[in-house]
Amino acid sequence: MINKPNGSGFGRILKATECSRKGFVAAWRFEAAFRQEAGLAIIMLPLSFWLAQSAQHWALLVSVLLLVLIVELLNSAIETLTDRVSLERHELSGRAKDLGSAAVTLSLTVVSVVWGVAIYQKFAG
């Protein structure tokens, strides 16, 4: 059995929680895109209560907002690791960053579709 550096059981949960906290702090401090998307989510969250037609609909509206933040965190991790490896321009580094950016764009498209349909149904229905 491999001895894992973060331990096991409840101690591991505590360490993982601390790592997550550090990740959120770093994203907020160093990633303007994360701050912008989090701000948008904070503004849209109260609107979700008004817009939602059911508890499940509300869960969908909020989940797609969280999806954007998740994808942005992963994109930021890719960019950070790429820069850690080398700040030199390289085709593969650029491709990795572009792929992460494309993933963020798709997640924002999902928000646009889900929220757009909800807004349409609210006013047309």
What does this structure look like?
The protein has 4 helices and no strands. It has helices at residues 9-30, 32-51, 55-85, 91-124. Helix 3 (55-85) runs antiparallel to helix 4. It is globular, with a radius of gyration of 18 Å. It starts with 8 loop residues before the first helix and ends with a helix.
Brief rundown of the structure:
By secondary structure, the protein is mainly α. 86% of the residues lie in helices and 0% in strands. It is built from four helices and no strands.
Number of strands: 0
Oligomer: single chain
Radius of gyration: 18 Å
Tell me the overall shape. Answer: globular
Low-confidence stretches: none
Q: N-to-C SSE series?
A: HHHH
Mean pLDDT: 94
What is the SS-derived class? Answer: mainly alpha
Largest sheet: none
Distinct helical segment count: 4
Q: Tell me the span between the first and last alpha carbons.
A: 59 Å
Q: Strand fraction band?
A: under 5%
Helix content: over 70%
